Task: inverse folding
């Protein structure tokens, strides 16, 4: 036994249980889910001591009293750009003498607060705290000693950061408006009063009134329209607030199989179903590795281009950027990623944003395992390699060295600081490291038992480490040392024990690139006929400073300016900006006007600014801003102001 603090449990203080008996199953299971359910029989040692890390981004007194269920009853008012209605919240006291329920709110108008008593709904006393620009306002409701339900009548603000209201002109169809939400990390509180911390999980239901001819969707089961024409939804599995989601628009559906399908505006529906046709195989791969998919259906919603992320893992309904629809399935790792969150993130959730790597690092790892399963090791390693380059850049650009730790510091300024490639790729690489040391044969069932042991719970880094000590390090005591683990989790930068992805395909790209850069071959002689998007990205990202003649030669040979693959376009425009290649600028401007995905536009605006083009950046942003999501608007304001 080691003296590493987290390794000091003994079997006497741990509970052994059979997981098959304690895994809640959704009543709706697909044929693909059955095999995983059978395979999930395993035993795990669950450490009795749980580790707590406070969530400094919530006002909620969630250690005293917790929300268990929220019932939303809302009108989606496109004219006023508000959600207007009420939420009824059921809560449970963890400490008997608690009299106040504190919720998070931001920019909400509270109209009435009532408690359920023997006499029916009666007005309650409440007080709103001062508004903080990041956290919003605490809502302190006096709930007394008895009540277990509070009903809050409220409406959202037209400038709610979690909601983007698109005019008909901003949609592809141009006829009907569109609304979509984005709650992660701190924006659920702009949609409803809620304990807005991933430490708290609740079930929810909703009844929505939307204008005729529009389809509402939520991160929940859509249970049809009631007698009054209200659309009803239910989410029977307990989820954290950041997974509450809504979208309303002229949205159509196309099935991929019985339990998986795609929602999108008409113009892109067929192409999306084709691009994402392998989602069922991904679900099978995931299930075989890590146990059953527990959420019933899995659908993908392809949003308008202003959606600020590549994807968002809203349960049962991942939200996806249309920039993934490349026509050749080259960007489907984002589907693998969001689907993987159905295990890492949604099933087992980081209990605060300092542990975001438990969501994003695990998910990036699982994503890559699934990509390997579907497309082979070659593509998986190329993706690891591109990611590793990104991680090195992220580490070198970190605002503070503490932000390169997996366990993030307690004075992290904003959860945004947790969503850098450190959480994603350093996190994934910690798991690659562990996989290499323990071997897949042991590591795969171990991870599966982790997802089962903490299913529908929120955990910390230390909980994971203790679980690892109890369930795999005991069997392989020499595989990894405490010091190695400590360096990965609490240390800064990239540990020397990181796996070094070796891609033969990329080595060939690098060799050919060197020949072209030095003038030994022409651009047309590059062996690019069979290059995948990944090889193009490797080529473009790896280029040194080029002359105008070289940029022109590349562009004329391969028509890179205006390319339809968004990842390739982004990589090319970054080179165009760095090399001052003017002919690409109109196409770059068009890209910035039509795409709102943060991964692309933040760096493009930043690069323009850093390369003496601040005026151009400001001019384009002034035109594009109204079409961007509120989250993106604020980020770019910051980038250009610095
Ligand atoms: N959960 C994230 C998106 C997110 C992060 C939203 C932080 C809000 C705050 C999602 O799962 C994600 O990681 N998306 C990536 C895709 C990926 C393949 C790395 C993205 O949007 O690019
Ligand atoms: Zn993710």
Result:
């Amino acid at each position: 036994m080691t003296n590493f603090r987290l390794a000091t449990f003994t079997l006497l203080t741990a509970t052994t249980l059979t997981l098959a008996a304690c895994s809640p199953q959704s009543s709706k299971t697909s044929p693909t889910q059955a095999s995983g359910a059978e395979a999930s029989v395993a035993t795990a040692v669950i450490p009795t001591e749980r580790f707590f890390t406070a969530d400094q981004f919530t006002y909620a007194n969630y250690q005293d009293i917790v929300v268990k269920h929220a019932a939303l009853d809302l009108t989606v008012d496109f004219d006023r750009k508000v959600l207007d209605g009420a939420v009824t919240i059921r809560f449970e006291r963890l400490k008997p003498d608690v009299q106040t329920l504190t919720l998070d709110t931001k920019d909400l108008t509270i109209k009435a607060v009532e408690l359920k008593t023997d006499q029916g709904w009666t007005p309650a006393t409440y007080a709103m705290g001062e508004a903080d620009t990041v956290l919003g306002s605490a809502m302190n409701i006096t709930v007394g000693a008895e009540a277990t339900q509070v009903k809050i009548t409220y409406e959202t603000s037209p400038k709610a950061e979690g909601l983007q209201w698109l005019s008909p002109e901003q949609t592809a169809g141009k006829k009907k408006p569109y609304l979509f939400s984005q709650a992660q990390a701190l924006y659920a509180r702009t949609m409803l009063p809620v304990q807005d911390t991933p430490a708290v999980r609740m079930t929810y239901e909703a009844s929505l009134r939307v204008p005729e001819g529009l389809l509402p969707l939520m991160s929940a089961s859509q249970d049809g329209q009631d007698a009054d024409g209200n659309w009803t939804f239910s989410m029977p599995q307990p989820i954290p607030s950041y997974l509450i989601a809504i979208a309303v628009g002229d949205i159509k559906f196309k099935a991929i199989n019985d339990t998986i399908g795609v929602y999108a505006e008409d113009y892109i529906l067929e192409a999306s179903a084709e691009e994402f046709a392998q989602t069922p195989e991904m679900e099978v791969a995931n299930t075989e590795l890590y146990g059953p998919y527990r959420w019933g259906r899995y659908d993908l919603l392809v949003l308008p281009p202003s959606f600020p992320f590549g994807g968002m893992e809203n349960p049962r309904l991942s939200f996806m950027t249309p920039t993934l629809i490349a026509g050749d399935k080259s960007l489907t790792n984002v589907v693998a990623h969001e689907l993987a969150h159905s295990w890492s993130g949604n099933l087992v959730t980081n209990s605060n944003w300092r542990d975001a790597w438990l969501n994003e690092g695990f998910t990036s790892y699982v994503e890559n395992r699934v990509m390997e399963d579907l497309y082979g090791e070659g593509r998986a390693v190329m993706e690891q390699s591109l990611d590793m380059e990104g991680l090195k850049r992220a580490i070198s650009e970190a605002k503070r060295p503490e932000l390169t730790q997996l366990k993030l510091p307690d004075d992290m300024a904003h959860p945004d600081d947790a969503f850098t490639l450190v959480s994603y790729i350093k996190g994934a690489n910690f798991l690659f490291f562990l996989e290499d040391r323990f071997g897949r044969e042991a590591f795969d069932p171990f991870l599966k038992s982790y997802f089962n042991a903490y299913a529908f719970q929120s955990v910390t880094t230390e909980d994971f480490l203790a679980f690892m000590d109890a369930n795999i390090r005991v069997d392989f005591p020499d595989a990894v040392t405490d010091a190695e683990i400590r360096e990965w989790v609490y240390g800064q930068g990239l540990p020397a024990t990181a796996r070094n992805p070796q891609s033969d395909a990329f080595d060939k790209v690098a060799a050919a690139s060197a020949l072209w850069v030095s003038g030994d071959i022409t651009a047309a002689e590059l062996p690019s006929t069979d290059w995948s998007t990944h090889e193009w990205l490797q080529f473009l990202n790896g280029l040194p400073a080029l002359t105008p003649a070289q940029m022109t030669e590349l562009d004329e040979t391969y028509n890179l300016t205006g390319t339809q693959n968004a990842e390739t376009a982004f990589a090319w425009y970054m080179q165009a900006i760095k090399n001052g290649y003017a002919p690409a600028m109109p196409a770059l401007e068009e890209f910035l006007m039509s795409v709102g995905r943060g991964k692309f536009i933040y760096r493009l605006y930043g690069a323009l600014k850093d390369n003496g083009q601040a005026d151009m950046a400001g001019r384009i942003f002034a035109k594009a801003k109204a079409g961007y999501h509120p989250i993106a608007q604020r980020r770019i304001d910051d980038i250009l102001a610095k």
In short: Confidence is low (pLDDT under 50) at residues 1-41.
